[in-house]
Amino acid sequence: MSARRLPGGGQIDRSRLLNFKWDGKQYQGYAGDTLASALLANNQQLIGRSFKYHRPRGIMSAGVEESGAIVTTGEGDRREPNVKATSQELYEGLLASGQNAWPNVRRDMGAVSGWFSRFFVAGFYYKTFMGLPPFEWGKGTGIWMQYEKLIRKAAGMGQASREPDPDHYDHAHAFCDVLVVGSGPSGLHAALTAARAGRDVMLVEQDFEIGGDYLNQSDAALISRRAEIIAELEQAGVRIMNRTTAFGLYDYGTAGLLERVSDVAMAANPHLPRQRFWTVRAGATLLATGALERSVAFANNDRPGVMTAAAAGVYLNRYGILPGQQIVVATNNDSAYTVAAELASAGASVELVDARAAVSAQQREVAALAGVQTRYGCAPLAVQGSKTVQGVTLANNGGAGWQAGDLMQCELLLVSGGWSPVVNLLSHRGIKPQWDPAQTCFLPVESAENIAMAGSAAGVWNLAACEQSGSAAMASLLGLAASHRSIVAGGWDNPIEPLYEVRIGEQRVKSFVDQQHDVTSDDIRLAHQEGFVSVEHLKRYTTLGMATDQGKMGNVIGMALMADALGRDISQVGTTTFRPPYTPVSIGALAGPNTGAHFRALRRTPMHNWNLANGATMTEAGLWQRSWYHARDAETISQAYVREAETARSSVGICDVSSLGKIAVQGPDASEFLNRVYSNAFAKLPVGKARYGIMLRDDGLVMDDGTCWRLSENDFLMTTTTSNAAKVMVWLEELLQLRWPDLKVHVSSVTDQWASVSVAGPQARAMIAACVEASTAVDNNSLPFMGVRAGKLNGGIDCLIARISFSGEMAFEIFVAAGFGPAMMELLWAAAKPLGGCLYGLEALGALRIEKGHVTGAELDGRVTIDDAGLGKMASTKKSYIGSVLRQRPELMREDRPRLVGIFPKDKASTFNAGALICQPDKVAGFGEGWITAVTHSPVLGHWIGLGYVAGGHESWAGRDLLATDPVRRGNVEIEVVSPHMVDPKGERMHG
Amino acid sequence: MASPISALDGYHTAEHSNGYGRELAIEEVTGLQLIQVAAWADNTDSVEQRLVAELGMPGIPLPGTAVQNGDVLLARVEPLKWWILNSGAEISVPELSPTEGCLLDLSHSRTWLAISGENAGSLLNRFLPIDLRDAVFPAGSIATTAFHHTGVTVHRSADGSYNLLLLRSFAVSLWQMMHETALQFKAG
To answer: What CATH number does domain A4-111 carry, 3.10.20.440, 2.60.120.260, 1.10.10.10, 3.30.565.10?
Structure first.
């Protein structure tokens, strides 16, 4: 092949030379080139190796349907495999290399697999799962586990980088009245019609240039028309997006778009994303997605130097490249005649072979005027040459099948086997296209949604008709006055001759149906022989039209061969479902900006920065960032939390508890509402008092716990666990809206309104007294256990103080408006330091509550009754509340249910893990007798302790040995179960 | 008297506000006063009329809209709830008896960002899945929507700019995302 750049012509910018590397060698192209056109201009023919057989492959097309020139671009962390050279825009410094080959695509050792190709037929690897006969018959797939590695290494595409992706990606939402997909003649006219009607239009084009088939024309008038339309669209405010692929259509006018933002212009703005994932919601969608030219199955139809006829026209007219000097054009339809004539006019020697017996004089004249020699009633039978095209053996249609004919010398074979409208996006909406035997293609059918198709996507084959089709389809879609004549499919002077495969008799050759997956016509027949009669089964067995191809090139030929084998029409066989994405979407684009620190939106307490400035190490608690521990000097986490817990027990500790859920419950019926929600009594809770409450689900199991503060007659402040805040809020809303709409109650989340701390320890009261204004008394009379009062911290900061303890110590919770959180911490910390106090984090908080036997989310895991948690006495017997009936189911009242217990190691120097099962020593099996929910070192007791659940509770196991079994991590540890109230069981410290 | 500290303290600075090119500015509105007014199903009209009258509003805020008097906005955020949003000097809000409804101070629960410039809508639609086109979301519109799976409130000002109310605890995280994305609008 002797492809070369012509001295003039094309839509490229010849004033901008671009340097790029292909397989380590430096080449040049022009702005406006694709990688494929630049390679072709440099006469590079062998670009890839095939998926399974490692056959040499060249450039087969000029678009996203490419199956041969599939390469890897970039290097290091920007290496991207499986890039179609035909749609990769050329840019300065582009690096590209061949893939699926060693050492390179020109000399690929993997090509030896072609010698064994008769063993690698369709579904060969499925058969290997059955075991290697006769050694493994009936025994499974032992040997597969070994040769799987070889198969995986030999097959496949390129290799992705193992390094983190250095680029960032974007998400975006857009809305429009009309979305037009495709900017060819029909798309541009459709957009123009909508814009002139005053609609808000988005026009998206996967190419880097707007214009579609206008770009491939040699007629200067058409080139000008394109520019004029674009100018008018821009003037009308149409949002025109090039480098943007509509990869999927979804419910209610939603389209997924992938915009390639800075693949080319990476250096222009380092903050630009590489790609942007758009979710577009359109009132109506017009698909002007064009059509793809099909090949024909014949021997060696995949050789470098075989490409579609239209692609040659694209390279000639858009990129100014003559793709070969000695060319044979094989066709079964009129479309190839213009290409043949243009190539001949550009200086190539062109012969055209037409499978049809004859065409009109007008059509013959198109060829003759350009000096193209024509033959009729013949088609390509076999390509000669191993890595390039040396010639093509023709087959003549003698009426009773094909017969071998002449050998024609050529270096480039262009094939046009007909056109397949790109119906993929419509297929995403569950609409099956219908086979049109006259046009030999699947055509779209009408959609019940606001979606229409136009142009060659609707089977319209000439440019002027495509323009009219776009206008007419848009007018119809928008319900505009019928000023546009609707256009029907068709448009050629001479009917197309169905042609899918050319072979003589039962000859077995490598004629490819789906080049991307190395699926041959014999594979299709083999699948049929093995009983695969459904196209969906055929697809999965042979991989025809799977993965990135999604049936773009091979489907129609495959369906035709299947229909032939079944003795049916293609219309009876049908087609497979084209699924999104139309072209691949990178994982990075799907993730968008939601990676790393932005994987989830993090919640920070009002004192977050203050905590960090005061030595906090943070940990995640759901979405919240919470202080884990405040290490001093070189303390480890264990040393820090033990010190913090000891300090809280001996002096005073301050802990940021702002993440607790907080809900305002307001209204004249608020107390009645709470009385129905909580299992214990709330109706008579006095103003200025708080109460610990347990709320159950309808099924009688515990939902959440917390305190509720009565601030006034009609105002309550409910606290929830951090993890259940949203769940409880939604639950309360549901109850009010659906069950008790008669109650005059409003609930509102105030979690973000308040900054809150827990101050715990024997010095807590003294410390707080130093921080409040004189009018805010915190003595035992003014603020007894479970008392609540409003007051002021020094500096006039309004606050709420409640005397509540989850640590077993004299403890208070102080709430201030969130903006004053840091100021509160400054005050409290300044008062705590002289008392030897400390800041403590989540780890010490856990240690204190485990010592006290207070339950939290780890214990209230959705399987637990209020009795299991040891809180059954709280549940009222005098009122009805959520869960009050079903909690009394016999299963939930069984005495041998797991009950909350404390856990000690027998050997006080040993430890055990949360999550371990609790078993009897002689019955280490199954789920055992219970499980461990939380563990810590107890500063008070001086050894490891835990909380957990054991069948029947601690009384049932007094004096009996048990094991904490943790076979994966720790093995068995001897334990004893005790009361969960391991420190100060009478609450003397807490009540102070 | 201590001063309240913004959730974005130490993060968002004046330098950030205008650091995204000529067509985009993000500014924090501090000193937010946000009072939630909730009525009962049988008296929404009377409460609404009181609010409109006492706040001097030009009309009734229909669902999805806010009315404005100077620095004070009155928005209908739920069927039975309104928000009084004030960016100026603190105002007193109408008292309600328990039978009329209830008031709730949420002033510290939100971080208020004002986003202006030609690219403001584009920036917001990088995150917000709602239609912000002029014809659909004109000046005075208000909506609760989602920003990275968290609830936010967005309001369109009379000058076409946007007010975005973020839950305080998420404010830094969401601001960081918005800041990083906003940089792409900076030319060059």
So the answer is: 3.10.20.440
Out of B10, B126, B184, closest to residue A269 by CB? B184
Residues B46 and B98 in one domain: yes
Diameter over CA atoms, chain A: 113
Lowest pLDDT segment from A228-237, A510-519, B7-16: B7-16
**Nearest chain B Cα to A822, which residue?**
B5
Relative orientation angle of helices A220-235 and A185-196, to the nearest 10 degrees: 30
Q: Is the ipTM of this complex over 0.90?
A: yes
Strand partners, A159: none
Pick the CATH number of A603-659+753-840 from 3.30.1360.120, 3.40.720.10, 2.115.10.20, 2.60.40.1080: 3.30.1360.120
Does domain A167-292+419-492 fall under CATH 3.40.50.150? My reply is: no
Quote the minimal CA–CA distance from B130 to chain A in Å: 8
Closest approach of A242 to chain B, Cα-based (Å)? 18
Position B1 in a domain:
no
Q: Which of B130, B173, B188 sits opposite A601 (nearest CB)?
A: B173
Q: List CB contacts of A268: < 8 A, sequence separation 6 or more.
A: A262, B188
Contact residues on chain B for A173, CB-CB shorter than 8 A: 125-126, 128-130
The yes-or-no answer to whether A167-292+419-492 and A295-417 have a common fold is yes
A754 chain-B contacts, CB cut-off 8 A = 108
Sequence letter at residue A46: L
Torsion of CA A161, A162, A164, A166, to 10 degrees: -20
- Contact between A604 and B169 using a beta-carbon 8 Å cutoff: yes
Q: In Å, how far is A395's CA from the nearest CA of chain B? A: 58
A–B CB contacts, 8 A cutoff, strictly below: 147
Query: CATH homologous superfamily for A295-417?
Result: FAD/NAD(P)-binding domain (3.50.50.60)
- Judged by CB atoms closer than 8 Å, whether chains meet at B109 and A818 is answered as yes
**Are A43 and A50 within 8 A, CB to CB?**
no
pLDDT confidence of residue A813: 97
A756 burial via Cβ count (<10 Å: 0-12, 13-18, 19+): buried
In the predicted structure, residue A262 carries a pLDDT above the cut 90 = no
**Same domain as B38, residue B19:** no
- Judged by CB atoms closer than 8 Å, whether chains meet at A604 and B105 is answered as no
Centroid of chain to Cα A100: 26
Mean pLDDT of chain A: 94
Judged against a pLDDT cut of 60, whether residue A267 lies above it is answered with no
Closest-approach residue (CA) in chain A for B150 = A601
pLDDT grade, residue A874 (50/70/90)? very high
Query: Alpha helices, DSSP H only, in A256-354?
Result: 309-317, 335-345
Range of the domain at B89: 33-105
Supply the DSSP symbol for A478. H
Do residues B149 and A623 lie in contact, with contact meaning Cβ atoms separated by under 8 Å? no
Tell me the C-alpha to C-alpha distance, in Å, between residue A383 and each of A56, A300, A639: 13, 5, 78
H or E stretch covering B67: strand B66-69
Q: Which helix (H) or strand (E) holds A96?
A: strand A94-97
CATH of the domain at B97: 3.30.70
Write the DSSP symbol of residue A865. Answer: B
Residue A320's nearest CA partner among A61, A66, A37 is A37
Cβ contact A752–B108 (<8 Å): yes
Q: pLDDT category, A956, cuts 50, 70, 90? A: very high
Identify the pLDDT of residue A483. Answer: 64
CB atoms within 10 A of CB A260: 21
Q: What is the CATH number of the domain that holds B164?
A: 3.30.1360.120
Taking Cα atoms as reference points, which of A41, A44, A43 lies closest to residue A10?
A41
Domain A890-991: homologous superfamily in CATH:
Aminomethyltransferase beta-barrel domains (2.40.30.110)
